[in-house]
Write a structure and sequence with these properties.
The chain is of the alpha/beta class. The protein is built from seven helices and four strands; from the N terminus they run H-H-H-E-H-E-H-E-H-E-H. It folds into two domains: 55 residues, no CATH class; 89 residues, Rhodanese-like domain (Oxidized Rhodanese, domain 1, 3-Layer(aba) Sandwich), CATH 3.40.250. About 14% of the residues have low confidence.
Length: 162
């Protein structure tokens, strides 16, 4: 049997871990057991196959951005509905330009007055973000697919520029 140290193709795992096979190992039972070794060409082929698979699968994705990833400012400028889910009193004390007030606890029943197209972009906000999260979940449960939770009024003002 040839000396393991003189073999040209050492296991990649052995090279990376620094563990070289040796005939004079005083504690062989305490050394990590060797892994299945692949030569460098096989490792390169596996990585190439993985890279090609990722590239091919990335072409299968939808060209439409996922909900919540669209630019809220661009959507607002393009005429997306801005829904303020605070109470009427809070809304009357100050709101975003063009915002429509539907209290969060009535959003499920009153959204049909604003839109019936479930793919229309809807930008939702409230005072702190809690009620807008509840309203967003309600709308998504009803099948609305392009609902963006802007969170608080201050964040909505900053994000939409209104």
């Amino acid at each position: 049997m040839p000396d393991p140290l003189e073999q040209p193709a050492l296991c990649l795992v052995s090279r990376l871990s620094g563990v070289l096979p040796s005939r004079f190992d005083p504690l062989p039972a305490f050394r990590p057991q060797p892994h299945v070794c692949y030569n460098d060409a096989m490792i390169r082929n596996l990585f190439t196959l993985l890279a090609v698979s990722v590239l091919l699968l990335s072409g299968c994705s939808s060209s439409k951005p996922a909900p919540g990833t669209a630019n809220p400012r661009a959507l607002a400028e393009a005429g997306a509905k801005i829904i303020d889910v605070r109470t009427a009193e809070e809304y009357n004390s100050g709101h975003l330009a063009g915002a429509i007030n539907i209290p969060h606890d009535q959003i499920g029943e009153k959204i049909a007055k604003v839109t019936t197209n479930k793919s229309d972009p809807l930008l939702i906000h409230c005072r702190s973000g809690k009620r807008s999260a509840v309203a967003t979940a309600t709308l998504e449960a009803q099948g609305f697919s392009n609902v963006i939770d802007l969170g608080s009024l201050d964040n909505a003002r900053q994000v939409t520029g209104k």
